[in-house]
Amino acid sequence: MLKNLCTTQLYLLKGANNLKQQVRTTFVLKRKYEPLLHKTNEKPRRLRAKHFIYELVEDTQVKKRPNMEVVLKTFVEGVGDKGDVVSMKPHFVYNKLLLPGLATYKTPENIVKYSKTEAEKSAVQHSSAYAQRTVNMLESIVLAVIMNKDEPWVLEPWHIKASLRKAGFHCKEECIKLPSERIEGPDLRKENKEFSCIITINKLEQATLKCRIHHWSTDPSERLPYVLEHWKLPAEPLLESSQNEAPTSNVQKPIVK
Amino acid sequence: MAHATPQGVKLLNGFKRPGRFEKGLGAQLPEAYKKFWREWKLTKPAAVHYIPKESEWERDEVTNAIKPVQSIPFPLIDTPESHQGIWGGEAVIKGFQKRESTKRRVPHFWVPTLRRSVVHSQVLNEYMSVVVTERTLEQIHECHGFDHYLLKNLACDLRSALALKLKRKILKSLQMGCPALSAEPKHQSEVLKEYSPYLASYTSEEIDWYGHTYLEAIHKLQDQLRAAEKVIPHKVEFRSKLIERLREAGIAEAGKKDPRDSVSHGDHSDADIDALTKLESSTPSSSWLSKINPFGKKET
Prior knowledge:
The structure holds 2 protein chains of 2 kinds.
Chain A: H1 2-18, E1 27-31, E2 54-59, E3 68-72, E4 85-88, H2 90-98, E5 103-105, H3 108-114, H4 118-122, H5 131-140, E6 142-148, E7 153-154, H6 157-166, E8 176-177, E9 184-185, E10 194-201, E11 205-216
Parallel strand pairs in A: 6-11
Antiparallel strand pairs in A: 1-2, 3-4, 3-5, 7-9, 8-10, 10-11
Chain B: H1 31-41, E1 57-59, E2 66-68, E3 76-77, H2 80-84, E4 92-97, E5 106-110, E6 115-121, E7 126-132, H3 134-142, H4 146-152, H5 155-158, H6 161-175, H7 185-195, H8 204-208, H9 214-228, H10 234-248, H11 259-263, H12 270-282
Antiparallel strand pairs in B: 1-2, 3-4, 4-5, 6-7
Helix pairs in contact in B: 3-4
């Protein structure tokens, strides 16, 4: 076994030495028994069956492929801005960028052709390539804002910040913009009512976050009965004015912890 | 003796079996097709399944004896499926494996891993779903595009009838100035500028004959030959001659002499035939006997 391992490694090493330029294919083979030499300018000898015994030198199918570099033609969400040279895995690049025409191959001409002009640079549309992903994530969830059932409270940005942290998002209080109306409690009429607040990402992109108020008590006997997957159920709007802004949808994704 | 044989003096070096371009219709194939054939079948393709030995001589590892390098290529099998996809020069290898030194060799086929993917041709402005290998995609990336891959590589390296057919299509489209991109003239001119250098190595006849298999080329030749010799049926020829003679005799029903008619005797216009049929029908039959058709269906 050990001997076999050693020999295969030896072959690999030999192949690497002989390889001047990279030969890429599925199977690279070599003969186990070389045929006998023939006269120059004559036909080769007739091959015997043993000359068709091949050994695998290398199977490039199982090798890790190096990343590919391409030039983006437009802004691509989660990848980069126009004119950026990005280096990513070849299959992703081919299927998601090259075939849809979002990028081209990296050549000096293409880099010049698709580089951003001054006018485009000054008109900032995206703070970063990944900001839109965060916007999509924030807009897909229904945030449970859990408030006290016994003590009086007024809803403030730090409540939303704490709830977002429980859902796996970290943001500053300055980024959270609550509705202009004052939301007070405890008020069981506001239980499971929906309102929306606006989260600003990188001081540029804005996401509308759907929030629902839930009451919670420290005393277990005082707690409200648990509703299974309450974020999937339809909810009434909490504020009259925000009725148009945030229409309730029936099916929502659960909060990602 | 030798001069009496069809091969002449050449027979002195032994009888040579006529090849596919020396007998039958193959002998009539144009030089343009033979050039493509040489590129496709008689050129040594790039090393795919083996590591080529660059040096002319090598030293034996055990005995240190110097011996020449005589690399005899593996026989590769091009399956019918390889011509329906684009395998990027890969082929099936048939051989044996010696898995253990004390065991008998076992037959084995090394078949490339195939997958279906989409390729995009800028010149044809088309997306195509084809069966490819990983090597094909890597070569496409290396050449910076599918069109470049087809146009840069020789027929022996493409190793697929589908790829060759697409290459001919692309070359023809380039010759006509990319009609597929006529909706966007700016893009069209850019594409033409990018790909037109490839046209320099082909004449228009070579493009016409590029990428056909032998049988396709024979069929193409047959069609050309048929189109060239236009056979006029004797019926038409004799009828026009008769009309001519009737005109000379001054019979009014034969119609006036056409200036077009005098140029081509073989041609005959419909008007002439109408006039003649009228002539036939206008002769009054005197007897009722002529109305009887003896070969007609019996009425019972």
